[in-house]
Amino acid sequence: MPDKPISPLRQRMIDDMTARRFSEATRKDYVRHVRTFTAFLGRSPEKATHEDLRRFQLHMAQQQIGPATINAAVAALRFFFKVTLERPDLVRRLTTVQEPRKAPIVLNQDEVARLLQAAPGVKYKAALSLAYGAGLRVSEVVALKVSDIDSERMTLRIEQGKGRKDRYVMLSPQLLELLRDWWRLARPQAWLFPGQNPVNPMTARQLCRAVHAAANAAGIAKRVTPHTLRHSFATHLLEQNVDIRVIQVLLGHAKLETTALYTRVAVNTIRDVKSPLERLGVNLASRSLPA
After folding, report:
1. For this structure, is 227 an active site residue?
2. pLDDT in tens, 54-102
3. Taking a C-beta distance cutoff of 8 angstroms, is the pair 163, 258 a contact?
4. How far, rounded to the nearest angstrom, does the alpha carbon of residue 123 sit from its chain's CA centroid?
5. 33, 123, 125, 137: which one is catalytic?
6. DSSP class of 96
7. Which pTM was predicted?
8. Cβ neighbours of residue 193 closer than 8 Å, sequence gap 6 or more
9. Beta strands in the chain (DSSP E)
10. Are the CB atoms for 128 and 116 separated by under 8 Å?
11. Is 102 assigned a catalytic role?
């Protein structure tokens, strides 16, 4: 069955996004959200009005759609009307929704050690050790190439991470030895962690399955994903009194406030803060409680 031809309007939007070098994932998401709006509208979005957009946002709120999805839809519609249709006036009243900031799940050091030891094989032990030892996103782990390892400078080059930015992270001696064990075993040529077809890298889904298997084998009851290891990396560095601005650079965060989220779970840091109650110089504890 032949593919349904793309409408000129959708093609124009795709071209507009391509010209701005949007990632493939972003292009697909934006098209999907505009398609959802068009289905809600029941006619071409070219004929949409202020009231139509207001009704659509109200509809999303009433359907209990999550803040992240609403904000993604708002971003897509803003692009579509501002850039593709050149009608910025229509989206002036579209508003994003504040997302609740949840404290990340963090493993303690004993749990991290147990998880890595339980990884199913050298390949996954090395990959998960990278997620924790260098604070990498799962997309960054699977995209690593052998050539990204600089053993002389003891750094890893992260190419085109989130926000299409390159950065360098530290490479610990223990992690380097683990990567060498993996290289001697598999002799990867291009991708550090090749997939079933060596032409392609291992997928994020494969790594997610591996971390779930390791968590179960290690008897860890917390909900663990590869990103949990990145959260744990940042939190443990904070607890070691590493400057938060250094951690920001290592994580590749654009905003310091994103990194500051980890101060909410850095237990050692919180515990070491001296309460102002201690500075009163008064013993408030009663030596003997009333009968």
Report:
1. yes
2. 999 999 999 988 888 999 999 999 999 999 999 999 988 888 888 777 7
3. no
4. 22
5. 137
6. -
7. 0.67
8. 123, 126, 127, 141, 142, 144, 201, 202
9. 149-150, 155-158, 167-170
10. yes
11. no
pLDDT tens string 58-68: 999 999 888 88
35 is catalytic: no
50 is catalytic: no
Please tell me which residue in 33, 125, 167, 230 is annotated as part of the active site: 230
Asked about 262 being catalytic, the answer comes back as yes
Domains of the chain: 8-91 (1.10.150.130), 109-272 (1.10.443.10)
User: Is residue 194 classed as helix, strand or coil in its secondary structure?
Assistant: strand
Using one digit for the tens of pLDDT, what is the confidence trace for 124-167?
Answer: 999 999 999 888 989 899 999 999 999 888 988 988 656 567 88
Beta bridge partners of 191: 145
Q: Which of 162, 168, 212, 264 is catalytic?
A: 162
Tokens (6 digits) for 131: 């997620």
CA-CA distance, 230 to 226, in Å (whole number)? Answer: 7
